[in-house]
Amino acid sequence: MSQNQIKEQLLASASVLEEMSRSLTEEIKKAAGLIVEAIKGGGKLVLFGNGGSAADAQHIAAEIVGRFKSHRRGLPAIALTTNASILTAVSNDFGYETVFARQVEALGRPEDVFVGISTSGNSPNILLALDWANQLGGKTIALTGARRGKLDKVADLVIKIPSEDTPRIQEGHIAVGHIICGLVEEAVLGDGDDE
Fold first, then answer.
1. Would you list the DSSP string of 95-120?
2. In this model, does residue 193 exceed pLDDT 90?
3. For the chain, what is the domain count?
4. Would residue 60 count as lying in a domain?
């Protein structure tokens, strides 16, 4: 890869982030608000995705449980992508499309916020899990790309990264995740929770 190609990739990423700054600030603020409300109400943040989106789910959960930028108490978040025994057993016994829904059924509560991450917006296992979360009465958020997808009709809030290029969508997702982590942390610290 030449330096010009590298520059093109960086500029493409920057262009998507710039567009996000114009079009997604309200959705990001709403998502953070739902999560703060859930945590203050005794709920937790539940995240899930496939492949790179699974890594994003784990990354965001780690920032919430551990810390993002400030010292404070641990906050409740879980990624449903981390227990290999559950993932393989449920996939084997019930089918991969149920791998997250089964965990939502077992672990989810009405006071929780559920975040499904899918670059296509059409992942069957994300769709089924968000549907289960809706049935529980939890709040649901989908992180997707620009294309219209099935998740658009299932989630309470959809954050659509303005790109159809998977790497750019994934970069947008983690940027959104980081911003949400910062907003949640700020809200917690604003309540005097700065242990």
1. -GGGTTHHHHHHH--TT-EEEEE-SS
2. no
3. 1
4. yes
